Amino acid sequence: MINLNLHTGLAAAHSSHGVSHEDYNQYASYCTRKLSRLRHGKVVRKELLHSRLYKNSLSTRVEVDNNGENNGGGGTSKAKHAYRAIDVTNLPSDVLSSHVNYFLEPLYCAERCWAASMAVRAEQQRGDDGIGVSSSGGNVKKLSRGKMQANSIKKLRKAVYYATLLETLTQGSTGADGTENGGEQMEALPPPVDEYSRMEARAYASWMKGNLALEMEKWQVASTEYRLALTMCETIASSLGNINLELFDFFTTRAQNVIAPLLRYCEYELNTSSSNHILQEKGMISTEEVLHNDLLRSSSNSHNVTPLEIGTSESMMSHIVFRENSITVETRELRMALLTIQDSKRDWVKKTSNNGNSGSDEGDDSMFISLLSGYDDTISLANKELKQLSAWKSGPAVNAKKFQLMNVVGYCKYQKLMMVMSRNEGMVNDIIIRGNDDKGGMSLKHLEEVTHLYDALLQDARAVTLLPGGGAPEDYDGNASVAAVEDEFLLEANANVLRLRSLRCYYLARMHASPLVRKYTEALTLLDQAESLAREACEEIGACDGMEGRDDLVANLENVLDSMRGDKCRLLAVSYLNANASPTLSKCLLERLYDYDIPSASAPLSHIPPKLEPMTCKPSFFDVALIYASSYPIEELKQALENHGGGVTSITSKGLLGWFRR
Predict the structure, then answer these.
(1) What's the DSSP call for residue 259?
(2) Whether 509 contacts 454, CB under 8 Å
(3) In angstroms, rounded to a whole number, what is the distance separating the alpha carbons of residues 98 and 508?
(4) Which of 117, 118, 440, 534 has its CA 20 to 30 A from that of 485?
(5) 3-state SS string over 316-372?
(6) In terms of Cα–Cα distance, which of 476, 433, 121, 424 is closest to 302?
(7) What CA–CA distance (Å, rounded) separates 472 from 536?
(8) In this structure, how many other beta carbons lie within 10 angstroms of the beta carbon of residue 440?
(9) CB atoms < 10 A from the CB of 562, how many?
(10) Is residue 306 very low, low, confident or very high in pLDDT (cuts 50, 70, 90)?
(11) pLDDT 10s digits, 574-632
(12) Which of 5-9, 157-161, 572-576: highest mean pLDDT?
């Protein structure tokens, strides 16, 4: 049997041909070229080409004319290369199993239609409607939003048709009517593909049907189809868990990150619609209000905006709370991105709590980086919508929308920074505990690591103070560069900055006071600064009533203040001894009984064997020369000199060159 590997093949095609950066026209062109290559294969061209040259093949659709004769699926045309309508379901299972192109052809037909639909939707999101300019320079009337949406739905219908055809082919076929040899029933043939391929085809068809229902706002149908696709992907992942871990991760990721957010969004819309109708039945809302809500929802969906109606829920991320403001998340893409982040964060917290660490394992690191990437994607979406709104004229509605998006950006950045800071503080605590457990206490390397982490924490804490958002919606004038609003959030952020500054100064002082550095004057100055900042931070944190973990933070700072006092007294004593120490060489303790300086390293009690000490002495040659020179007869020496010199003490020359003989 054939193994199609539908989803992995499509994932590779998406990443290589424009889908990853939303260039759906490029992907549609690729699908067209791919279909041409698939249909012109030497083995399958007879069954897949629409040429009347192959009208006698099994794939020719049976079309009976007015005379009751089969015209070969090509109408009344007798041309050799006229169009031939084909029906691949006429092929028996043994023919289908002979080549994989029989299944890839409807698959890429569905992908081409889906890409065309997504391209139309992307143009609709960009607002490319009205009068446009053609390549020749003339004005071309573009489609309206209604016609663009209708065109998108039309393409999705064709995609659903081909996806359903693919699912039918994977189940096997015995012919158009299931009979052969004069109407006799054929024996049941095995399916042309394996079980995994049939499950993949069913999941793909359900996903495509859900996309069509979502575009048509048929929430019940979309929920049913997405739930079926989710179940099939989870079933495939569980069956491949012990066989292929790579495929297990692929289908699990697709189920959790692609299909599950769509399913939750459809369920939310279904619950919202049900709430309106229930309230209408009870008389709490009129028919006109229900129609108005539906009209508002359909109008906003054309702009990719879904207003929050009755029956909102926290679990659906329909609104968020940031800086004392309840912000409604109206955009479909933003809400789905927040739902994905919520699920990823729940999984990450659960895994780190089960492991009992700060999330430093390799698996936890990958989940953490994926979660941060989710926040970055959400921030990018919100900034993209803000950029679109910047071209609009300011007004109450536009400013309110800008205020919502600005707070969404601030909320995502705040959550991202708090996760990074929490992780870094956990690493700091681990290093401190590990250093205190050592025999000699925290070493210089431990102090450097802690100080480096506090540098990163201080940078993130200062970034928190600069986050957008806050204030009242009616006070926002549409200008994103206004001064920061001094609310409780900003006070807490500034207090946290003071706390981190004091801790950073404290560990910097300990670095300067280490035995390998011995800069005691700088260490004392840093300790004074750290103590001043710690006292100010305690006052600021104590004034923030709603600050999370306020009591623990204050208690930690008080413990650090006590440690600062002890370190300061110790540094004063060491600094005094270091200033009054005499420069000595390395001596043992017996040789430095009257020295009060602290040795830079541990000194032994005595040297074994004793060290050699230099002594002052003269060379023996001078001693011997002195003996002989002192006893030599001076008078005899003078007499010998006079005898050999002939009594002449000096020689004079009166010649021309006499001067040179001197």
Answers:
(1) I
(2) no
(3) 73
(4) 534
(5) CCCEEEECCEEEECCEHHHHHHHHHHHHHHHHHHHHHHHHCCCCCCHHHHHHHHHHH
(6) 121
(7) 30
(8) 7
(9) 9
(10) very low
(11) 877 777 655 555 677 787 777 766 665 667 788 788 878 777 776 777 777 776 666 66
(12) 157-161
* 3-state DSSP assignment of residue 108: helix
Report the C-alpha gap between 177 and 210 in whole angstroms: 30
Average the pLDDT over 494-521 and give the result: 90
**Six token digits for residue 356:** 């009992």
Provide the 10 A C-beta neighbour count for residue 83: 13
pTM for this entry: 0.51
Tally Cβ neighbours within 10 Å of residue 361. 14
The CA distances from residue 450 to 92, 493, 523, 527, 557, in Å, are 71, 21, 16, 16, 16
**Which of these ranges, 32-41, 53-62, 640-649, has the smallest mean pLDDT?**
640-649
85 within 8 A of 60, measured Cβ to Cβ? yes
Q: Rounded to 5 degrees, what are φ and ψ at 507?
A: -75, -25
Phi first, then psi: give them for residue 58, nearest 5 degrees. Answer: -70, -25
Residues 6+ apart with CB under 8 A from 41: 48, 99, 101
Tell me how many degrees the CA angle 305-308-314 measures, rounded to the nearest 5. 115
Which residue's entry shows tokens 């054939």? Answer: 2
- Name the region of 194 (left: φ>0; alpha: ψ -120 to 50; beta: rest): beta
Q: For residue 533, which of 570, 496, 487 has the smallest C-alpha distance?
A: 496
What is the total residue count of the chain? 662
Instruction: Concatenate the DSSP letters of all residues of 120-150 into one string.
Output: HHHHHHHT--SEEE-TTS-EEEPPPHHHHHH
Q: Phi and psi dihedrals of 140, rounded to 5?
A: -125, 130
State CA 115 to chain mean position distance. 26
326 has which bridge partners? 321
Quick one: CA dihedral 539, 545, 547, 550, positive or negative?
A: positive
Residue 645: partners with Cβ closer than 8 Å, 6 or more residues away = none
Say whether pLDDT at 296 is over 50. Answer: no
Q: Which value, in Å, is the radius of gyration of the alpha carbons in the chain?
A: 44
Architecture in CATH for domain 1-50+86-126+144-177+208-214: Orthogonal Bundle (1.10)
Do residues 519 and 467 make contact, with C-beta atoms less than 8 angstroms apart? no
Q: Are 115 and 28 in contact (CB under 8 A)?
A: yes
* CA-angle at 251, arms to 250 and 253, nearest 5°: 65
Q: Which two tokens stand for residue 377?
A: 């994607």
**In 3D, which of 160, 233, 231, 228 has the Cα closest to residue 196?**
233
Cα–Cα distance measured from residue 637 to residue 635, given in angstroms and rounded to the nearest whole number: 5
Pairing of strands 319-322, 325-328: antiparallel
Rounded Cα gap, residues 507 and 452, in angstroms = 10
Q: Which residues contact 620 (CB under 8 A, 6 or more apart)?
A: none
Query: Alpha-carbon distance 601 to 580, whole Å?
Result: 18
